[in-house]
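User: Please predict structures.

Assistant: First:
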Amino acid sequence: MEWRVRTDSKRRRRSLAAISVVLGGVLVLSACSDGGDKGGDPKSNGEASKSQADVDAAAAKDTSKAKITIAPKDGATNVGLNDAANVTVTDGTLTQVELKTSEGTAVAGDIAADGKSWKPKGALKRSTKYALSATAKDADGKEAHENASFTTVSPENSFVASFVPEEGQTVGVGMPVSITFNKAIKDKKAVQAGISVSSSSGQEVVGHWFSAQRLDFRPEQYWQAGSTVTLKLALEGVQGAPGVQGVQSKTVTFKIGRSQVSTVDAKTKKMTVTRDGAVIKTIPISAGAPANPTYNGQMVISEKFKETRMNGATVGFTDADGKGEYDIKDVPHAMRLSNSGTFLHGNYWGADSIFGTANTSHGCVGLNDVKGAGDPNQPAAWFYDNSLIGDVVTVVNSPDKTIKPDNGLNGWNMNWADWKAGSAA
């Protein structure tokens, strides 16, 4: 019995040893990067490492030579909306680029004719996460891939500029480039450095800050008739205030038409229309009554309405009950001269006899007209049809003060030295 017991014990020890060897083999085979000395065949491990290195080297040799670069970098935030997203490739050509929002909406874009770059067709949306994937091939047809995701700037972290005139518009010689920002600008120098206005006439053009949200540009004298003016906004990424950056990159051109400057003499109650240096018409007018005289000064037509409503309550002319002293719902041929309510417009409710003889308005300049604005032979209709946004109307000999330069597009009432002093450039 003892012999059998010892023999069984010996057999169990041998079995356990065999199992241990098998398990040890499993452990060795399962370890990817065991750097310790835990048994096994060192020669065998070296050969395995050499074999993997050869595989990696072979794979590297087989990869595409095309190198794709995506801007912005993966994970970027506060990305601009216009020119911030783009893809370029060297040693290859792009074959496919996809830009999608996190909701899966695709953004249209164009691969350049040479296949070396891609960009979106339009501006991106604010506060939106985008995923961009790109594929390119090298000369051997081997593909390369690159991916990135980014988030665009939020409304709270960005500012935009609205401006007049509009692209392609033809305007009068007095039309300034007037830019309004939707947020207060703290770093005016940086923002103005990102804006340029030039004229084909070669006139010097200077910007003037009327406030933290308004910047106008003009030359010393009126624009030269027939010239072309170019506005360039390069505000993408410009810091307008701490934590607030620009998101626009835009070029706008507009034309200057013929030169027309009209002079309203509140004393003689006549308007003289001068075009390209020659008087083409004299029109009887009725300016502001003695209690509400018309502003003096150079005023630029900023808006035109064939018919519009004029309510005195909107500009402070109210009666004892708080109602407007007047409320005319169909004022014909109205042209705005100031932000405070000064218009040059048709007047059908006044007697024909007042034009050229009496000043009767609340500060506007009235021309004879008919109800409905339907008679092209009326003086107001003629002037409306022959005027452009940007034409100048200068009022003289009124008992009122000169209009302020920032009341409308009327910066011409500031001398050139003061105008230049308001530049941050």
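Second:
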Amino acid sequence: MIRQELVARQLDEAIAAQFEVGRRLRVLDIGLGEGNQALRLVRAGHQVTGLESDPALLDVVRGALEQEPEGIRERFRIVPGDGQDTGAHFLPGTFDVVLCHSVLSESRDPESTLAGLARVLDAGGLLSLVIPNVAARAMRAGRAADWEATLAALAASEDSDRTLRLDPLTSLLTRIGAPLERWYGVGVFCADDAPAEEAALDAEERAARVDPYRAVATSLHLCGVRG
């Protein structure tokens, strides 16, 4: 899917900007899901820990790992749990990179979740957040002239948690010691499940980093750096 490829390219860019080439990183993936980004990173040589609370998704990841060479399996650790549990599982400064992709909106307390993620980051570590762009959730329905869905999305946007918007999150990242370093849009033009065709990827990548396009993407990708 184009969404996964876009996030992967943006994450690679953020990692390249923060760490020396060839460094083997300690990565934590909160809300592992089907393990797309985690598997990609462990194949690249990094040490990855995945935290996931859904037993069915854990089975999916374990099944995928069984198909990997032994060296990759040895670098991938799976821990049952969610983003609220980082303090119970990990010491401060344990990881170089923490991924929190598309799960923060499900957190009981996004602010404490993010504070916990920043706590387990080492100095200079990268915090990668992917969140739904609630401020622009009516855009896709409006472009399709589905006015009933557009009005419903506008109403939902007005009622949504103000914490999960760019400006409040920027302030929050500063308060927890991982200020925003860069941010991207994910899905400016294409639906999340669109095929990852090269022309579409090129257009999305260019639009993902410039205003006003990135501000109306389906999701936002925020990268903070631990001070």
